[in-house]
């Protein structure tokens, strides 16, 4: 079965990454991995803040409609 263009691209990318790892220790390889930045505010506080802001906007809109 012949390889598709996508498979060839992915195989070439994988081979390039493996070649870059050759001769390096595990510590050097682990340093290259990208760490995802962690948000300084927890999702719970973001939810509470969103509830206060958007809830306030909703109540303000309702009070202007019915007042």
Automatic annotation (TrEMBL):
Query: Transmembrane ranges?
Result: 40-59
Q: Where in the cell is it found?
A: Membrane; Endoplasmic reticulum membrane
Identify the stretch(es) annotated as Disordered.
Answer: 1-40
Q: Does the keyword Endoplasmic reticulum apply?
A: yes
Keywords assigned: Endoplasmic reticulum, Membrane, Transmembrane, Transmembrane helix
**Taxonomic superkingdom:** Eukaryota
- Keyword check for Transmembrane, yes or no: yes
- Annotated GO CC locations: endoplasmic reticulum membrane
InterPro entries linked to this entry? ER_stress-assoc (IPR010580)
Give the main location: membrane
Query: Which residues lie in Basic and acidic residues bias regions?
Result: 1-37
Classification via Pfam families? RAMP4
The entry sums up its family as follows: Belongs to the RAMP4 family.
Role this protein plays: Interacts with target proteins during translocation into the lumen of the endoplasmic reticulum. Protects unfolded target proteins against degradation and facilitate correct glycosylation.
Question: What name goes with this protein?
Answer: Stress-associated endoplasmic reticulum protein
Q: What is the protein's species of origin?
A: Metarhizium acridum (strain CQMa 102)
């Amino acid at each position: 079965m012949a390889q598709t263009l996508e498979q060839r691209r992915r195989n070439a990318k994988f081979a390039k990454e493996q070649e870059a790892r050759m001769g390096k220790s595990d510590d050097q390889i682990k340093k290259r991995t990208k760490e995802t930045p962690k948000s300084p505010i927890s999702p719970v506080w973001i939810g509470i803040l969103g509830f206060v802001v958007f809830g306030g906007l909703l109540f303000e809109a309702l009070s202007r409609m019915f007042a």
